[in-house]
Task: structure prediction
Amino acid sequence: MNIFKDNRIVLSLDAGGTNLVFSAMQYGKLIGKEISIPAAVNILDDFLVKITEGFNLVKKMAGGAHAISFAFPGPADYPNGIIGDLENLPVFKGGVALGAFLEAKFKIPVFINNDGDLFTLGEALGGFLPFINSELQKEASNKRYENLIGVTFGTGFGGGLVRKNKLIGGDNSAAGEINRMGNPLYPEASAEESVSIRAIKRVYAREAKITNNIPNPYEIFLIATGEKNGNKQAAIISFKELAIVAANAIANTISLFDGLVVIGGGLSGAHSIILPTLVHELNRRMATLDGKSIQRMEVFAYNSHNPECLKDFLSNSSIEITIPTTDKKINYEAIKKIAVGISKLGTSGAVALGAYAFALQQLDEINKD
Result:
């Protein structure tokens, strides 16, 4: 299936605490313009009216639809389309069967998923994964990658896993929940407590010894780069802590899954100061109990935003070895490589493409049955 040649129309939604942004997609591209409706409501029925209105508007604009597919915040039972208690949308308290509601209204299949999962799928199909494989092809390399680990740095720490263009969801639709991994800096806390917007602000306030008028993460980034006045050292430490904790969680994921890593989310805009520390941590060596050292991971990570690192990653590092008792040669990949980079589609663009692709894949599965 080539999603960029598929004429089926899928309606989608970017559900935030402030706005509900509706769209329609065909051939892997948006149809017309997005439609935004304020999300703030206090009554569930009012929210359901808004979401029905939004999907009706984009359906009319697109001239029909074959499915609805979108990301929605958790906790949720995504396979069954049931949304749980949400901090930013309290009308869902107690659990709401949103998928079944929309299927009854629109008489078409409805698919709801985690934004980290859909972000990763979008980048696997039209973003970072094909970019890396295209660069390898330009270098006449036979190496190709099929696995992608996606992580998002934003309000929280999200993740997803894709293998051969298919999401790995897990038996409870909970695979890739990287936010629940351990925190090496604060062992009693989860990784998300250091990989989030609130973490950047908290660490800056602590290091700068302030309690009021704490800058937002973008301002803290500008302080760290010297483009804005403030406590530069505190700003640098804020992003360094994020990078160290994120690297620990990503390294554990790579060790189990072995794939490229793509980063999205609002905080990924600070990649110029996050990536060097993060990749350094991925490649950090660990001590053995007999006083030796080993690599943190069996693979070696490369920062794809550093031109020299990318060049090294793309270069052919294989060597020829002789097959014992023969005069025949065989290529040996002595260095196992993975690349780490930033979203090629933008986070919202990757999520939208992922939602579209996921719907088409699920429709094909339905049609098989």
About this structure: The first helix runs from residue 44 to 62. The CA atoms of residues 165 and 257 lie 14 Å apart.
